[in-house]
Design brief:
The chain is mainly β. The chain folds into four domains: 131 residues, Sandwich (Immunoglobulin-like), CATH 2.60.40; 116 residues, no CATH class; 120 residues, Immunoglobulin-like (Sandwich), CATH 2.60.40; 114 residues, no CATH class. 7% of the residues lie in helices and 38% in strands. It has five helices and 39 strands. A hairpin with a 4-residue loop joins strand 2 and strand 3. The longest helix has 10 residues. The radius of gyration is 27 Å and the shape is globular.
Length: 528
């Protein structure tokens, strides 16, 4: 029962923004065009025509040259909200030609049907042009659409060097209309064999001329989790989802040899268990140096000894080169690297090394075959138990309590002294006050001292609104001095800043406590 609970942590994620015709590639000859609303090559009509020297917009379609941004710009910048954010006047009928009609050029199009599309020119000559494109807002007769395909544990977007899906890996598909309306994410019992069709959804993957059918853990209209078969070749291929006898437009899938992802919970805390007791490491049950733990995730690589569909009750090593780092300290005792008893779920058994920095958010990095994983964090203390962070003063008990709240009011006050040669020290005070979700606050603050993390996300043009709080007046009182006002920034809600007089912060850095005092202007209490 304990292990089944961990599997639910491994599998369940949240839905993402939706798109429709995703990452299709077409090669056009001279005097042919493309209908971006259905993805078909046409000899007349469509949204643009290739003449050999230009892309000329057809009908009411308009567009513009975004820039020579290449695959990175196509994957991580030009999303639907980004394309829609430009004024209508930016989209014109001016043909794409000359220096804009080159490989790696990114083009935005407003189609005849009123949808937005992005185009990446992959190759161009006097006789043909190859284009990758995504159109947002269109569907195939109400059928399924695929937005993206990601490693279920790391959720690293396509386009990053450590993205991609390995054979024998648990992966997740985001999209819309992919399964029976109202379906929820219920894990199938892998001891009975995972089904190829669930809630009306099935998956087909073709790479290098070989087609495979992944087994499904769960399926909902917006998300499907499945296992990529071990026999899948590496390389770039296509993935389609079929629901209600209608197949989605093929989405691009990149199958790679290694791309490990660690599973997380409570924001960005790694799913790790004690190898002896099976207990989950948490902020009140921190790992400690010398402890043997199991890291849970997926993406080590092809596992020819394991079933793609059925739990067989045994574990099989996977022959890959693995390195592990805790807060920058390398683990030298890696005892097991391979499959778990669940299809597609991979584990690493190792010992937490000595000398790891203590804290509630010590970053972990796993490198497999030279490819680095996502970078979650783990509570680690020399003596285990409740974690604590020197930089923030938080303890694991406080963070665990906060994680259960829907909203948390957060105030951060900084006193900063900077010095440059030949100049007197500069003293400043700044503060921010806002509202965050409990899980987000408890799971994703800055890493503990001694470590760093890299966040890998695809900007979707949507900025999550921040609820800023007004604490009233704010002042700083130095030792033996009088209160110094720290005024709010009129253009940045919830932000306060002041340059402090020389000597406000003692040069030895160890003053008696400097007091920060805020007023008590109205601010709602966090919902329980």
């Amino acid at each position: 029962m304990k292990t089944l609970h961990l599997l639910s942590l491994v599998l369940f994620t949240t839905g993402l923004a939706l798109a429709d015709i995703a990452n299709q590639t077409q090669t056009l000859k001279v005097a042919t065009g493309l209908n971006l609303d259905n993805g078909t090559v046409v000899s007349s009509g469509g949204d643009f025509l290739f003449t050999g020297t230009t892309l000329t917009y057809q009908g009411s379609a308009t567009g513009f040259f975004v820039g020579p941004l290449g695959a990175d710009g196509y994957n991580n910048v030009a999303t639907g909200p980004y394309l829609k954010s430009f004024p209508a006047s930016t989209y014109t009928t001016t043909a794409i030609s000359g220096g804009a009609l080159v490989a790696n050029a990114l083009i935005a199009v407003h189609t005849n049907a009123g949808n937005y599309a992005k185009l990446l020119i992959q190759a161009v000559s006097a006789t043909s042009i190859t284009i990758e494109f995504t159109t947002y807002g269109t569907t195939i007769n109400g059928g399924p659409t695929v937005t993206d395909v990601q490693n279920n544990s790391s959720l690293i977007p396509d386009g990053f060097p450590n993205a991609g899906i390995t054979p024998s890996t648990l992966f997740v598909i985001h999209g819309s209309n992919m399964a029976t309306p109202g379906s929820v994410a219920v894990l199938q019992d892998s001891t009975l064999g995972l089904p190829a069709t669930l809630n009306g959804a099935s998956i087909s993957v073709t790479v290098g001329g070989k087609t495979v059918t992944p087994a499904i853990y769960y399926s909902t209209p917006t998300q499907i989790a499945a296992v990529l078969p071990e026999a899948t070749p590496t390389g770039t291929g296509t993935l389609t989802v079929t629901y209600n006898n209608i197949a989605s437009f093929p989405a691009t899938i990149h199958v790679v040899a290694s791309a490990y992802g660690m599973s997380t919970f409570n924001g960005n805390t790694a799913v790790a268990t004690d190898a002896v007791t099976g207990a989950l490491l948490t902020q009140t049950n921190a790992g400690m140096p010398g402890e043997i733990i199991i890291l849970w995730g997926t993406g080590l690589g092809a596992d020819p000894l394991d079933s793609d569909t059925t739990s067989n009750g045994s574990q099989n090593p996977i022959n890959v080169q693995v390195q592990a780092y805790f807060g920058g300290v390398q683990a030298t005792n890696i005892a097991y690297v391979g499959g778990s008893i669940y299809p597609g779920v991979h584990v690493i058994g190792l010992t937490i090394p000595a000398g790891v920095p203590n804290g509630c958010f010590v970053p972990i990095a796993i490198t497999v075959g030279g490819v680095t994983s996502n970078l979650p964090m783990l509570p680690i203390m020399d003596n285990g138990g409740v974690c604590s962070d020197k930089w923030s003063g938080y303890t694991g008990s406080q963070l665990s309590q906060v994680a259960g709240q829907q909203n948390v009011h957060v105030g951060l006050v900084y006193l900063v002294q900077s010095t440059t040669p030949g100049n007197a020290p500069a003293n400043v005070a700044l503060a921010t006050f806002n509202q965050q979700s409990g899980v987000g606050f408890a799971g994703m603050p800055a890493p503990s001292p001694g470590g760093c993390i890299i966040g890998q996300t695809s900007f979707n043009g949507i900025v999550t609104p921040t609820t800023y709080l007004d604490p009233g007046t704010l002042s700083i009182t130095p030792p033996g001095g009088t209160a110094i006002p720290v005024p709010p920034n009129p253009s940045l809600p919830g932000f306060f800043f002041a340059s402090l007089p020389s000597g406000t912060i003692p040069a030895n850095g160890e003053p008696s406590p400097t007091k920060a005092r805020a007023g008590h202007r109205s601010a709602p209490s966090p919902p329980r």
